[in-house]
DNA sequence: GCTTAAACTATGTAAATACATAATTAAGCT
DNA sequence: AGCTTAATTATGTATTTACATAGTTTAAGC
């Protein structure tokens, strides 16, 4: 892990600084709320101008990873899990950006007959098996989300793929299938016994439930995803502007 | 709409420039793909430095409203139109569109001291009362959402307005205050006794909780809205496209 | 002891300047 | 005409400098 900036590199200094900051803020001390070195000092230490450093910091502030307070300092945002980018970063990438170590508690891939609604979304029959993936993930402390994904047979998954890789990256690399459009429905549910057991909460406790309909480049359905999030650990953010 | 920058205004120049750009790009010519004036020229015309202008442009680029190409120019991104506009229907309009008859179970308007977080969002003190509106609404059968709204004193509400009208329509008509930007956070909660009583459910049952930060034309905070939705009766939909 | 004022700290805003680089256009050569 | 090269254009990167302003801490005054 290099914590220095290479002035001879063709990579712009502010990009280098940005990446360096992303690493830096993973430090438990900063995660715990310790202020970052002030801009003037940090710029000096990195041998770049304050303007350039601010350019880097700005990006992280925009992503809501950092918070700046005039006259006080800059610190890591107390990250509940949420962000605009959430929609298009896969779960593991999002967690990585926040310095949270993702742990896979369970990963199960199987071939199953689709239920009515899944078959209907995929526009296929209920008599042909498709790939189902179940995944229990969370921080190192505890699981906080349970995913179920169904994949359209068109993609050609075998079920033997490396599902430990970021999902959409894998699909793009191995099957040239690019997730392009997603429609989501978010609601609150009582955890049933099964989900409660997985998330290690009481049955009947609230969970945030997200249905996700994912379409490929040709607007064809490719994935049907169900996500059950432990209530207190997940906030979904939406930003919209009047048009 | 003034297309000039006021150097004597306390509003930072790059913020003014940003707002000005937001207006400018509404011009059909720019929407159609015409290049914006180049940075050096535009800065000169606005009588600000290129650095400051770039600061403004950067924001719109972050928001994916503008696209820059080195050596070529800057133009409006061909904006994907998503059903995000859904969020811009008020509750009653939304219900109407679904063919559900809205019943107002309770409507209570009062003047109260804002709590910390509300005051902080509005950037005011906690020692001056503001207008609070509480509203319990639902279908003809039963209530299914409890709203709490706080309004910024800038708007000038008296508390005597006709809150039975669609809210944003009333604000626009009576106070020329237009809701322009909304940031929302959606999560799942256990209903406390108060909310449970209102929604006629058991305490501890899940509710979908939506915080909504609403800003006006000048990106100034205007409304802080809390919504508690009975879990089984509300689904939040989001549509997003990869960029 | 309490309040007020001043000093200090760190971010916020703004400009002027210089050069690098990608995309496009024009010029020049065979 | 078709290719290569040079000039032009507009954004990209980076520094230096200066002062403003919001929070915090310290000192002064009553």
Automatic annotation (TrEMBL), chains A, B:
The UniProt record lists the keyword Transcription: yes
Classification via PROSITE patterns: HTH_GNTR
InterPro entries assigned to the protein according to its UniProt record, in alphabetical order: Bact_HTH_transcr_reg (IPR050679), Chorismate_lyase_/UTRA_dom_sf (IPR028978), Tscrpt_reg_HTH_GntR (IPR000524), UTRA (IPR011663), WH-like_DNA-bd_sf (IPR036388), WH_DNA-bd_sf (IPR036390)
Source species, domain of life: Bacteria
Domain HTH gntR-type: 11-79
Keyword tags: DNA-binding, Transcription, Transcription regulation
GO molecular function, one term: DNA-binding transcription factor activity
One GO BP annotation of this record: negative regulation of DNA-templated transcription
Gene3D superfamilies listed in its UniProt record: Chorismate lyase-like (3.40.1410.10), Winged helix-like DNA-binding domain superfamily/Winged helix DNA-binding domain (1.10.10.10)
Pfam families on file: GntR, UTRA
Name of this protein: Transcriptional regulator, GntR family
Organism: Mucilaginibacter gossypiicola
């Amino acid at each position: 892990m290099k914590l220095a900036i290479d002035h001879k590199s063709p990579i712009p200094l502010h990009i280098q600084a940005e990446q360096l900051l992303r690493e830096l803020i993973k430090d438990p001390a900063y995660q715990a709320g310790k202020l970052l070195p002030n801009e003037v000092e940090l710029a000096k230490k990195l041998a770049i101008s304050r303007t350039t450093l601010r350019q880097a910091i700005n990006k992280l502030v925009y992503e809501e990873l950092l918070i700046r307070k005039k006259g006080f300092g800059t610190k890591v945002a107390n990250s509940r899990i949420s962000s605009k980018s959430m929609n298009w970063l896969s779960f593991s990438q999002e967690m990585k950006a926040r310095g949270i170590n993702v742990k896979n508690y369970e990963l199960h891939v199987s071939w199953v007959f689709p239920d009515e609604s899944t078959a209907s979304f995929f526009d296929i029959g209920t008599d042909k098996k498709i790939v189902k993936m179940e995944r229990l993930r969370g921080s190192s402390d505890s699981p906080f989300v349970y995913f179920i994904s169904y994949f359209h047979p068109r993609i050609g998954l075998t079920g033997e793929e490396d599902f430990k890789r970021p999902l959409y990256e894998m699909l793009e690399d191995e099957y040239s299938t690019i997730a392009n459009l997603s429609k989501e429905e978010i609601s609150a549910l009582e955890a049933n016994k099964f989900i409660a057991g997985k998330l290690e909460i009481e049955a009947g406790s609230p969970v945030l439930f997200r249905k996700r309909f994912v379409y490929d480049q040709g607007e064809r359905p490719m994935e049907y995803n169900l996500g059950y999030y432990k209530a207190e650990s997940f906030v979904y953010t939406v930003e919209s502007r009047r048009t």
